[in-house]
Amino acid sequence: MTGEFTIAVHALVYLDHKQETLSSEELAGNICTNPVRVRKVMARLKKHKLLDTKEGLKGGYKIAQPPEKISLKQICDALEMDIVKASWHSGNIDMPCLVASGMAGVMDGIYGDLNKIGKQYLETITIKDIEEQIFRKAD
Known about the structure:
By secondary structure, the protein is mainly alpha-helical. The protein is built from six helices and two strands, in the order H-H-H-E-E-H-H-H. Helix 2 (24-31) packs across helix 3 (35-47). The protein is elongated. The relative contact order is 0.15.
């Protein structure tokens, strides 16, 4: 996972909470990040119909679906990201040692399984669930 996922979840929860069109600057202020970073993430969510946009002086972003209909898996898919990903592989497929030549493939299989399981779990969590957890803690 990356910070983009957190930005996306935070923005969608905040947009649902506010129930109004918000600019990338307003979202960035609440998320505590840069508006350019927010716009990059929002563009991908819009492409997958999780957000609506409005042009002009009072323009910005608005949540496009009911929060109970947006799963964290949909966000992960919109951002085209894996839950876990190897940034480096040990060994080398061309080495004569079975451990060195076979480790990367085995680890890739494990990461693939973790992604599958993780996405199944994310399918069970919605933006509404996240919002409810936040406000439950506030009580």
